[in-house]
Amino acid sequence: MQICCAQISQVYEDIDTAFSRAEEYIASANADMVIFCEQYATGWRPVASSADGKAVKARWLSLAKEYEVCIVGSYQRPTADGKPQNVMLVCSPDGEVLAEYAKIHLFTPGGEDVAFSAGSEVVCFEFGGMKFGCAVCFDLRFPELFREYLKIGAHCVIVQAAWPAARVADWELLLRARALENRGYVIGCGCIGYDDVGGVDYLGRSMVCNYEGRVIEDAGVFEGGLSWSFDDCEVVDGVVEMRERWGLYAPSSEVIYK
Predict the structure, then answer these.
(1) Residues 217, 232: Cα–Cα separation, whole Å
(2) Following DSSP, what letter does each residue of 209-251 receive, concatenated?
(3) What is the reported pLDDT for 251?
(4) What is the pTM (predicted TM-score) of this model?
(5) For residue 256, what pLDDT is reported?
(6) Residue-level pLDDT at 258
(7) Contact 190, 165 (CB under 8 A)
(8) Structural domains in the chain, sorted by start
(9) How many Å apart are CA 72 and CA 34, to the nearest integer?
(10) Whole-angstrom distance between the N-terminal and C-terminal Cα of the chain?
């Protein structure tokens, strides 16, 4: 299997340009799965976008079907209370929804909780013989969420993020810690570029960490991204063996978030 993280600069509130860049990346990636950063289509800011969330969702699904690839995108899902949810959207190569995960831990220091509604459910999906868990940015600081993914047997957790360059040391530390403590893989896809409205610089550093907490792929601080090619059977067998060795492989029906 080959998984790519698309580390390309966000374009704020210009979805046509954003999707044009996304399509160019997907077309050249030759990947089974392509992951984009948090709210890539509109650019992440702690305010609701003016873009039509349903239209953004439809464009992700259309791209997945056209290129026959699994795409991990995102959109802002409307809710009854008027505050959208920050949603990770997983699209199958057939253009169908594989999973939708609403960000549970909103970035309260930046006021995300004022403009968005929090999710409450852990979400897993299966693809290519592996089970993946879903997380978004600030979720990374909450180890109990990742423990739930261990309990339900996820082999890898995907983290979409808009992580500021000022806290890049935390980003690497937490990705490695979540992988090590649960003896599973963690993929972090970070955005890159400068938000002149918020005055925030995003450094990228998309990476893959293995079950020993080691960084095995790192996109660095440059435009482009990373590609991780691997045997999914070997990854699954390695995770299962490592968890059994450390007494961690004990799936449970008990979950914190429900």
Answers:
(1) 16
(2) E-TTS-EEEE-TTSSEEEEEE--HHHHHHHHHHHHHHTT----
(3) 55
(4) 0.96
(5) 44
(6) 40
(7) no
(8) 2-245 (3.60.110.10)
(9) 6
(10) 32
pLDDT under 50: residue ranges of the chain: 253, 255-258
State percent of the chain over pLDDT 90.
Answer: 95
Letter for the amino acid at 142? F
Provide CB contacts within 8 A for 214, sequence distance 6+.
176
Length in residues, the chain: 258
What pLDDT is attached to residue 253? 45
Q: Are 134 and 145 in contact (CB under 8 A)?
A: no
Q: Contact 240/247 with Cβ under 8 angstroms?
A: no
The string of pLDDT tens digits covering residues 104-127 is: 999 999 999 999 999 999 999 999
Other Cβ atoms less than 10 A from the Cβ of 24: the count is 12
Place of tokens 């925030």: 200
Helices (DSSP H) in the chain: which residue ranges? 15-29, 53-67, 112-115, 143-151, 168-182, 232-245
